[in-house]
Amino acid sequence: MATIGSKARQFWHHPAGPKTIHFWAPTFKWGISIANVADFKRPAEQVSYPQQCAVTATGLIWSRFATQITPVNYNLLTVNVFMAITGMYQLSRKISAGSSEPEIAASSPASSAAVAGAGPQVPLEVPSSK
Predict the structure, then answer these.
(1) CA 29, CA 117: separation in Å to the nearest integer?
(2) Rounded-to-integer distance, Cα 8 and Cα 52, Å
(3) CB neighbour list of residue 10: distance below 8 Å, 6 or more residues apart
(4) What's the rounded Cα separation, in Å, for the pair 23 and 37?
(5) What is the pTM assigned to this prediction?
(6) pLDDT per residue over 103-124, tens digit each?
(7) Backbone angles phi, psi at 50, to 5 degrees
Protein backbone atom coordinates (compact mmCIF):
# COMPACT_ATOMS: atom_id res chain seq x y z
CA MET A 1 0.00 0.00 0.00
CA ALA A 2 1.40 3.36 -1.05
CA THR A 3 1.77 6.10 1.50
CA ILE A 4 0.52 9.63 1.09
CA GLY A 5 4.10 10.84 0.69
CA SER A 6 4.83 8.46 -2.17
CA LYS A 7 1.55 9.42 -3.91
CA ALA A 8 2.42 13.11 -3.52
CA ARG A 9 5.91 12.47 -4.88
CA GLN A 10 4.46 10.61 -7.90
CA PHE A 11 2.07 13.50 -8.54
CA TRP A 12 4.85 16.09 -8.18
CA HIS A 13 7.16 14.30 -10.63
CA HIS A 14 4.43 13.26 -13.10
CA PRO A 15 4.96 14.48 -16.71
CA ALA A 16 1.72 16.48 -16.40
CA GLY A 17 2.33 17.39 -12.76
CA PRO A 18 2.57 20.81 -11.08
CA LYS A 19 6.17 21.34 -12.20
CA THR A 20 5.01 21.66 -15.82
CA ILE A 21 2.83 23.94 -17.92
CA HIS A 22 0.73 20.87 -18.71
CA PHE A 23 -0.68 21.15 -15.20
CA TRP A 24 -1.04 24.91 -14.81
CA ALA A 25 -2.58 25.82 -18.18
CA PRO A 26 -5.68 23.64 -17.69
CA THR A 27 -5.83 24.59 -14.01
CA PHE A 28 -6.15 28.27 -14.88
CA LYS A 29 -8.54 27.40 -17.72
CA TRP A 30 -11.01 26.35 -15.03
CA GLY A 31 -11.53 30.09 -14.49
CA ILE A 32 -13.26 30.33 -17.88
CA SER A 33 -15.57 27.45 -16.98
CA ILE A 34 -16.36 28.93 -13.58
CA ALA A 35 -17.16 32.29 -15.19
CA ASN A 36 -19.42 30.50 -17.67
CA VAL A 37 -21.29 28.84 -14.80
CA ALA A 38 -21.63 32.22 -13.08
CA ASP A 39 -23.24 33.50 -16.31
CA PHE A 40 -26.08 31.00 -15.87
CA LYS A 41 -27.73 33.72 -13.74
CA ARG A 42 -27.62 36.25 -16.59
CA PRO A 43 -30.66 36.59 -18.84
CA ALA A 44 -30.36 34.43 -21.93
CA GLU A 45 -30.69 37.52 -24.13
CA GLN A 46 -27.31 38.71 -22.83
CA VAL A 47 -25.52 35.48 -23.73
CA SER A 48 -23.16 35.95 -26.68
CA TYR A 49 -23.42 33.49 -29.58
CA PRO A 50 -19.79 33.99 -30.71
CA GLN A 51 -18.43 33.62 -27.19
CA GLN A 52 -20.39 30.47 -26.42
CA CYS A 53 -19.61 28.94 -29.82
CA ALA A 54 -15.92 29.55 -29.09
CA VAL A 55 -16.19 28.04 -25.59
CA THR A 56 -18.02 24.98 -26.95
CA ALA A 57 -15.66 24.46 -29.89
CA THR A 58 -12.60 24.91 -27.68
CA GLY A 59 -13.97 22.38 -25.22
CA LEU A 60 -14.71 19.79 -27.91
CA ILE A 61 -11.45 20.20 -29.82
CA TRP A 62 -9.17 20.18 -26.79
CA SER A 63 -11.05 17.29 -25.16
CA ARG A 64 -10.16 15.17 -28.14
CA PHE A 65 -6.57 16.41 -28.05
CA ALA A 66 -6.25 15.59 -24.34
CA THR A 67 -7.04 11.94 -25.06
CA GLN A 68 -4.49 11.65 -27.85
CA ILE A 69 -1.38 12.95 -26.09
CA THR A 70 0.96 10.85 -23.98
CA PRO A 71 0.56 10.82 -21.08
CA VAL A 72 -3.16 11.51 -21.13
CA ASN A 73 -3.73 14.81 -19.33
CA TYR A 74 -6.87 14.23 -17.28
CA ASN A 75 -6.90 17.79 -15.93
CA LEU A 76 -6.97 19.11 -19.52
CA LEU A 77 -9.61 16.55 -20.46
CA THR A 78 -11.97 17.37 -17.58
CA VAL A 79 -11.74 21.14 -17.92
CA ASN A 80 -12.46 20.95 -21.65
CA VAL A 81 -15.36 18.52 -21.28
CA PHE A 82 -16.78 20.90 -18.68
CA MET A 83 -16.23 23.87 -21.03
CA ALA A 84 -18.03 22.09 -23.86
CA ILE A 85 -20.97 21.17 -21.61
CA THR A 86 -21.37 24.67 -20.17
CA GLY A 87 -21.03 26.23 -23.63
CA MET A 88 -23.67 23.93 -25.09
CA TYR A 89 -25.97 24.68 -22.16
CA GLN A 90 -25.56 28.44 -22.68
CA LEU A 91 -26.19 28.07 -26.40
CA SER A 92 -29.33 26.03 -25.73
CA ARG A 93 -30.56 28.74 -23.34
CA LYS A 94 -29.92 31.42 -25.96
CA ILE A 95 -31.59 29.45 -28.75
CA SER A 96 -34.66 28.56 -26.68
CA ALA A 97 -35.03 32.13 -25.43
CA GLY A 98 -34.73 33.46 -28.97
CA SER A 99 -37.34 31.11 -30.37
CA SER A 100 -39.89 31.70 -27.60
CA GLU A 101 -39.77 35.53 -27.50
CA PRO A 102 -40.66 37.77 -30.42
CA GLU A 103 -38.16 40.43 -31.49
CA ILE A 104 -40.30 43.42 -30.45
CA ALA A 105 -37.48 45.43 -28.90
CA ALA A 106 -35.37 45.36 -32.05
CA SER A 107 -38.02 47.20 -34.05
CA SER A 108 -38.02 50.39 -31.97
CA PRO A 109 -35.25 52.94 -32.67
CA ALA A 110 -34.61 53.68 -28.99
CA SER A 111 -34.01 50.04 -28.10
CA SER A 112 -31.76 49.44 -31.10
CA ALA A 113 -29.58 52.36 -30.00
CA ALA A 114 -29.40 50.91 -26.50
CA VAL A 115 -28.50 47.50 -27.88
CA ALA A 116 -25.79 48.98 -30.07
CA GLY A 117 -24.29 50.67 -27.00
CA ALA A 118 -24.96 54.15 -28.34
CA GLY A 119 -26.12 57.01 -26.19
CA PRO A 120 -29.44 58.77 -26.60
CA GLN A 121 -30.35 59.48 -30.18
CA VAL A 122 -30.24 63.16 -31.08
CA PRO A 123 -31.81 64.28 -34.33
CA LEU A 124 -29.30 65.68 -36.77
CA GLU A 125 -29.84 69.22 -37.96
CA VAL A 126 -29.57 69.62 -41.67
CA PRO A 127 -28.07 72.97 -42.59
CA SER A 128 -30.26 74.95 -44.87
CA SER A 129 -28.78 76.08 -48.14
CA LYS A 130 -28.95 79.85 -48.53
Answers:
(1) 30
(2) 37
(3) 2
(4) 22
(5) 0.66
(6) 545 544 554 455 555 555 655 6
(7) -60, -40
